[in-house]
Write a structure and sequence with these properties.
Elements lengths: L2 H9 L5 E3 L9 E3 L8 H15 L5 E10 L2 E14 L2 E12 L16 H18 L1 H11 L7 H12 L4 H11 L3 H8 L4
Parallel strand pairs: 2-5
Antiparallel strand pairs: 1-2, 3-4, 4-5
Helix pairs in contact: 1-2, 2-5, 3-4, 3-6
Length: about 190
């Protein structure tokens, strides 16, 4: 089964992707550019959560690295996955590879006028508004405040789905474009400000 087929069947999403399952640099998930959708970072992290969830796992992103392979821009996302071994509990690192060539270009240049603190403040204000809009959002933001939202893969995926459709998405994109901070890292960073 192809990744695209699994995402549609198991999670009801149909992202503009092709390629492999992203389990090696030679079989990356190709994220295609499409009109009206510039949040390839959010899409990549959403796909990571879905792949892990489909395998019965949960994990937290622990790193990201931009690589060049055969003239293509490959984003390697490293995820720490809890595991139990004979010597106790630990974390193993899973790596997933995304071909982001179609999204590269001027986006990698940091905007000198970018104000990180102002952007984070605007995200926090929007989170407070979202919290009041539905019981689900309120529950997720309470868990975010406590630093526990990302402990539940399914809930995290559902909340990311809300954010991908929200007016605040462009703010998360600005954080990635200017500070290389993915959406899950931004959410973690703002938890103390909520």
């Amino acid at each position: 089964m192809e990744l695209k087929e699994m995402l549609l069947r198991e999670f009801g999403v149909d992202p503009r992707i092709s390629g492999g399952w992203g389990d090696s640099i030679d079989t990356p998930i190709i994220l295609h550019n499409s009109a009206g959708s510039s949040d390839y970072v959010g899409t990549a992290y959403y796909i990571v959560k879905c792949i892990l969830s489909n395998r019965g796992l949960h994990g937290e992103p622990v790193g990201q690295e931009l690589l060049i392979r055969n003239g293509r821009n490959i984003d390697k996302i490293m995820v720490g996955v809890p595991e139990v071994t004979s010597s106790g509990t630990g974390t193993r690192i899973e790596e997933l590879y995304f071909d982001i060539t179609e999204h590269s270009g001027d986006r990698w240049k940091e905007n000198e006028d970018f104000n990180e603190e102002e952007t984070l403040a605007r995200i926090v204000e929007r989170m407070k508004t979202l919290e009041r809009l539905s019981e689900f959002n309120g529950k997720c933001i309470d868990l975010l405040r406590e630093g526990r939202l990302q402990n539940d893969n399914g809930l995290t995926i559902e909340f990311l789905d809300v954010l991908f459709k929200d007016e605040s998405l462009h703010l998360f994109e600005k954080m990635y474009d200017n500070k290389r901070k993915p959406i899950l890292h931004v959410l973690r960073d703002i938890s103390a400000r909520l």
